[in-house]
TrEMBL record:
InterPro entries: DUF6089 (IPR045743). It comes from Capnocytophaga gingivalis. Pfam families: DUF6089. Residues 5-233 form the DUF6089 domain. This is DUF6089 domain-containing protein.
Length: 237
């Protein structure tokens, strides 16, 4: 999977050769939580940490291509739920995941790090596609007392896709080439089995007609590099 992430970065560079003003590379630290059939129904309520790497290629003043990879565990428990039905059921699950994505990021304000003495700040949105690998979970029996209803894991892993809907803000650190951003991203997945509630082997429960979501929220730090493309129209003004 890691070689595909490198391929994504090289592709971004190749298709934007001659366009870009600068590149960004950096790290992500944050948290994740599922929105599924087990656990809390709060949308942003991180339960496990997430770490990642990201790369951006600026292609227009307010538009960038973005590729990233993240590692995390999705975990939740009915003990954190707000409904009596879930708390009384008392199920829990944990799913090891790695995701790799590519998409576009749009800044609402002009954001050019080649203006060294200008305060830079902008909100932004991001979307695209994520491919992820996960454990294949299932429950053998959900009629037994909750302490005996343990999830199981298939020997082989599963894979699926997700669409991110991201809202964030970013700024430059003290006039340097370092940028820091904070974002919250909802991932709509094309699976209903992040929590083991709709596997091919075990019993099914919960809402079987809707797919699962998961949230990724946190901070990233990137370093910008590369020369700004000469814009002859700006000099002609």
């Amino acid at each position: 999977m890691h070689k595909y992430f490198l391929w994504l970065i090289l592709t971004c560079c190749a298709i934007t050769k001659g366009w870009g003003q600068y590149n960004e590379i950096g790290v992500f630290f944050g948290g994740v939580n599922p929105i599924a059939d087990i656990g809390s129904t709060y949308y942003v309520f991180p339960t496990k940490p997430a770490i990642g790497l990201l790369y951006k290629r600026n292609i227009r003043k307010q538009l960038s291509l973005r590729a990233d990879i993240k590692w995390f565990d999705l975990w939740d428990s009915d003990r954190r739920a707000t409904t009596d039905a879930r708390r009384n059921r008392d199920f829990a699950f944990q799913n090891r995941m790695v995701e790799m994505g590519a998409g576009v990021e749009y800044d609402f304000l002009h954001f050019d790090t080649h203006e060294p003495f200008k305060l830079l700040f902008t909100p932004y949105v991001h979307t695209g596609f994520y491919y992820f690998k996960m454990d294949r979970l299932y429950f053998d029996d959900i009629t037994t007392p909750s302490q005996h209803a343990k999830y199981q894991t298939y020997p082989e892993r599963d894979e699926s896709w997700a669409i991110p809907f991201t809202l964030g803000v970013k700024t430059r650190l003290w006039g340097s080439r370092f940028l820091v951003g904070a974002e919250v991203s909802m991932r709509y997945t094309f699976t209903n089995n992040l929590d083991g509630s709709k596997s091919g082997k075990g019993v099914h429960f919960g809402n079987l007609n809707t797919n699962d979501w998961y949230m990724v929220s946190g901070l990233y730090l990137t370093y910008t590099f590369g020369a700004k493309k000469c814009n002859c129209f700006e000099f002609a003004k």
